[in-house]
């Protein structure tokens, strides 16, 4: 730029090259956005919190569609005010940030402090990954449901058996593929009520000789 006498005027949105003015055009999406704390935070010692932060957007800029990756800002990490957790979030002007305080003192982070950077995330899938989680979508009943249908339709009529088969095929994704295909849910929580009794500690006991073969 020095060799060609270039003058960059951000305020006027133009660049001058050898006395020729060229307007600057802003289009598309930026590759990275700064994320700043929206309000002053007081993080107690040996604790963490999730704070709502603002994505810094200049006038006319918008976030690209899809998801983005939040990574800690190097300058913030260098200030020794606490590590920032990496997060994958949906693009929004306000995003959650996980901040930890591993010290013995209260950490204060002022509003407007840049704590992280947000960059668009690209989802990469391979054909093998897709096939490994693919559920059957054809008209043939999967093998892991054929046995269930056989055991359940012993006393059903032909019409009832056909309806049961259609039901299993429609909801095949709800059934386990095998005995090792465990799912999980957030709808039900299990709690064991032990009353006022505290935890107990018991020594290990040897397995009786006549039961060792069963365990093996």
TrEMBL record:
Superkingdom classification of source: Eukaryota
Name of this chain's protein: Uncharacterized protein
Originating species: Pinctada imbricata
Lineage: Eukaryota, Metazoa, Spiralia, Lophotrochozoa, Mollusca
């Amino acid at each position: 730029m020095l060799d060609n006498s270039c003058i960059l005027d951000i305020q006027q949105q133009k660049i001058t090259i050898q006395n020729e003015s060229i307007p600057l055009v802003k289009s598309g999406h930026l590759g990275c956005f700064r994320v700043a704390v929206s309000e002053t935070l007081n993080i107690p010692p040996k604790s963490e919190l999730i704070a709502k932060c603002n994505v810094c957007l200049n006038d006319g800029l918008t976030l690209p569609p899809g998801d983005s990756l939040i990574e800690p800002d190097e300058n913030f990490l260098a200030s020794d005010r606490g590590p920032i957790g990496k997060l994958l979030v949906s693009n929004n002007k306000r995003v959650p940030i996980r901040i930890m305080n591993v010290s013995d003192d209260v950490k204060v982070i002022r509003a407007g402090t840049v704590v992280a950077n947000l960059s668009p995330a690209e989802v990469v899938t391979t054909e093998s990954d897709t096939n490994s989680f693919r559920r059957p979508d054809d008209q043939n009943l999967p093998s892991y449901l054929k046995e269930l249908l056989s055991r359940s339709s012993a006393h059903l009529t032909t019409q009832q058996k056909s309806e049961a088969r259609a039901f299993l095929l429609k909801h095949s994704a709800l059934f386990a593929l095998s005995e090792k295909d465990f799912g999980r849910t957030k709808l039900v929580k299990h709690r064991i009520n032990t009353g006022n009794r505290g935890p107990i500690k018991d020594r290990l006991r040897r397995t009786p000789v006549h039961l060792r073969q069963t365990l093996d």
